[in-house]
UniProtKB/TrEMBL annotation:
Keywords for the protein's UniProt record, in alphabetical order: Cell inner membrane, Cell membrane, Membrane, Transmembrane, Transmembrane helix, Transport
Subcellular location: Cell inner membrane
Family as reported in the entry's similarity comment: Belongs to the GSP F family.
Statement: the UniProt record of this protein carries the keyword Protease: no
Gene3D superfamilies named in the record: Type II secretion system (T2SS), domain F
Residues spanning the membrane: none
Pfam families per record: T2SSF
Superkingdom, taxonomy of origin: Bacteria
Major place of residence: membrane
PANTHER family in the record: GENERAL SECRETION PATHWAY PROTEIN, PROTEIN TRANSPORT PROTEIN HOFC HOMOLOG
Name of the featured protein: Type II secretion system F family protein
Length: 421
């Protein structure tokens, strides 16, 4: 979707300048069998850089290696935002329990099933051991850790509240992932059903209706008007099937490529999403919820308002709000209040502006923005439920008219067969 573009711009800004640290050594998975001093047999798996490291690790545990085999490296899965959110939650829990940072990262890395994620954490751990701060280590991987993530880690390290900020960050990521999942679930069902309906219609038009046409030609009587219309449509499908099937495929492919490569296509797509008759309101509420939660998280971490705007712009996930955030940043930089700056963009509801004004006047801006985010997240929940209940009967009606209409049109001549005879 076009919502990737602002986030991609933020990740680009988050990339560290200068040479990155050395690449961490690759770890492998070893299967081992061993015995303790009493001769009792043990076996298991261990991730390590070499056989020597496995022998040394097991020797510290009082075990003597009898058999050691390096497993063929499995092809790892793609690292997702869910992996990052779960890692953040685990790291917060371990730090709160008093486990040292490097040991916590090592425990999480060894326990993860995805080799790609294990390698990522190994590189981060290697950078920290080499003298980099945690934020610097994360910034070397902007594909997985955006500006918001790295800035909050930096604030947590400097303020000595890393565990608390990791917990807040994990909550933010979990809410964002849940919000995206809700929107996808609201979109996938109607798109899937309409795609199947289109495929069924094409099959009926190209293969089924021409067979009926051959039967009707032997009747020697005038066919009903609906039947003639459907047969004419079938003839058009048969003559131009390559266009009817190929045009949607080519169009969708070009649109997806445009979203990835063209900023103009991304901006136009984001503007269109916000103007859709049913889904536009849902997208707008989701963007506002993400925008306010991001700003609340940054502000609660002690990040200055102007500096927070770069992260907020990227996390908005929509070019319309990305541009609006940049305007707000410029206005706040010259002394305009946040409420007035937001009002000048004309993309925020009055309730958002009022809550922001109350937060500014009371000195509790982060709490007010968090309440706004929670309110709009509930609005998204209700909107998804309402759209689901509305879409289902609407799709049934569309399928009934489309498929049922063709079936009735084809059977009308058979109903009148007695009159022909």
């Amino acid at each position: 979707m076009a919502t990737r573009a602002p986030a991609a711009a933020a990740r680009k800004a988050a990339a560290p300048k200068g040479k990155p640290g050395r690449k961490a050594p690759t770890q492998y998975l070893f299967e081992w069998e061993g015995k303790d001093r009493k001769g009792k047999a043990f076996s298991g798996e261990l991730r390590a850089e070499s056989q020597a490291e496995v022998n040394a690790t097991l020797r510290k545990q009082g075990l003597t290696v009898v058999k050691l085999k390096k497993r063929r490296a499995a092809r790892g899965k793609k690292i997702t935002q869910k992996d990052i959110a779960y890692f953040t939650r685990q790291l917060s829990t371990m730090l709160k329990a008093g486990i040292p940072l490097l040991q916590s990262i090592d425990i999480i890395a060894r326990g993860h099933a995805n080799p790609n994620f294990t390698q990522l954490l190994s590189e981060i751990r290697f950078d920290i051991e080499s003298g980099s701060s945690m934020a610097q280590a994360f910034r070397r991987h902007p594909r997985y850790f955006d500006t918001l993530y790295c800035n909050l880690i930096d604030a947590g390290e400097q303020g000595g509240i890393l565990d608390a900020l990791l917990e807040r960050l994990s909550l933010y990521m979990e809410k964002t992932i849940a919000l995206k999942s809700q929107i996808k679930s609201a979109m996938i069902y109607p798109i899937a059903v309409l795609t199947v309906a289109f495929a069924v219609t094409v099959i009926l038009m190209i293969f089924v209706i021409p067979a009926f046409k051959g039967v009707f030609s032997s009747f020697g009587a005038n066919l009903p008007a609906p039947t003639l219309v459907v047969i004419a449509m079938s003839d058009f499908f048969v003559d131009n099937w390559y266009l009817i099937i190929g045009a949607p495929i080519i169009g969708i492919t070009m649109y997806i490529r445009g979203l990835k490569r063209s900023e103009k296509v991304q901006r136009a797509s984001d503007r269109l999403l916000l103007r859709l008759p049913i889904f536009g309101s849902l997208f707008r509420k989701a963007v506002i919820a993400r925008w306010t939660r991001t700003l609340a998280t940054m502000f609660a971490a002690g990040t200055p308002l102007v500096e927070s705007m770069e992260s907020v712009a990227g996390a908005a996930g929509n070019w319309v709000y990305y541009d609006a955030t940049k305007e707000i940043e410029q206005s706040v930089r010259i002394g305009t209040s946040l409420t007035n700056a937001m009002q000048a963009t004309h993309v925020f509801d009055s309730m958002v502006l009022q809550m922001t004004q109350i937060g500014e006047e009371s000195g509790a801006l982060d709490n007010m923005l968090l309440k706004v985010a929670e309110f709009y997240e509930r609005e998204v929940d209700d909107a998804v439920a309402a759209i689901s209940s509305l879409i289902e009967p609407l799709i049934i009606v569309i399928l009934g008219v489309l498929i049922g209409g063709m079936v009735v049109a084809m059977y009308l001549p058979i109903f009148k067969l007695g009159q022909v005879v």
